[in-house]
Amino acid sequence: MAIREILTVPHPVLKQVSVNVDAVDDDLRALMDDMLETMYAAPGIGLAAVQIGVPKRVIVMDLAREGEAPQPRYYVNPEILWASGETAPYEEGCLSVPEIFDEVDRPTQVKLRYLNYQGEQVEEDAEGLFAVCIQHEMDHLNGVLFIDHLSRLKREQAVKKVKKLVRAA
Ligand code: NI
């Protein structure tokens, strides 16, 4: 496993639409292992492959609370089969937009279909933080960042702050 570099805004690759994965094989599992290690090191609770410069439809996540055992989750070619009409705001952040947090409105419940680490097809209902996180990560697969849900002014300010932060690092 290896820790990879996380791209930050305004890197153009973050705007790319990721492509479907043909097969969940050892190469893909090695990518997912790297993604998980990179996410834990950041630290973060979700990461899309495109954030480390690999525009494939792959997401890793771990929503375990502090003190709980790790609960790594893997989503390959995820699809949203259903989303609730009810929405709620949640304060989001993103490893590609460090130190910026703002509220985004999203459906509170979604039904998902995806391939897991073994390549098995799974259907799963998501609500709460899980629903927020999977929708945020699935936006990445379509080249959309959470700041794209904000006003243009807020988005431009966010990008400016991140550029400054990255330059200072
Ligand atoms: Ni993100």
Considering the chains and any ligands shown, give keywords for the structure.
Peptide Deformylase; 30% strand; 7 strands; binds nickel (II) ion; alpha+beta; 169 residues; globular; 5-stranded antiparallel β-sheet
Structure explained in plain terms:
With about 170 residues, the protein is an alpha+beta fold. The chain has a single domain, classed as Alpha-Beta Complex (Peptide Deformylase). The strands form two sheets. A five-stranded antiparallel beta sheet has the order 1-2-3-6-7. The radius of gyration is 15 Å and the shape is globular. It starts with about 25 loop residues before the first helix and ends with a helix.
Shape: globular
As a percent range, the share of helical residues equals 25-40%
Strand order of the largest sheet: 1-2-3-6-7
CATH fold group: Peptide Deformylase
Question: What order do the helices and strands follow?
Answer: HEEEEEEEHH
| Class computed from helices, strands and strand pairing | alpha+beta
The CATH architecture category equals Alpha-Beta Complex
Number of strands: 7
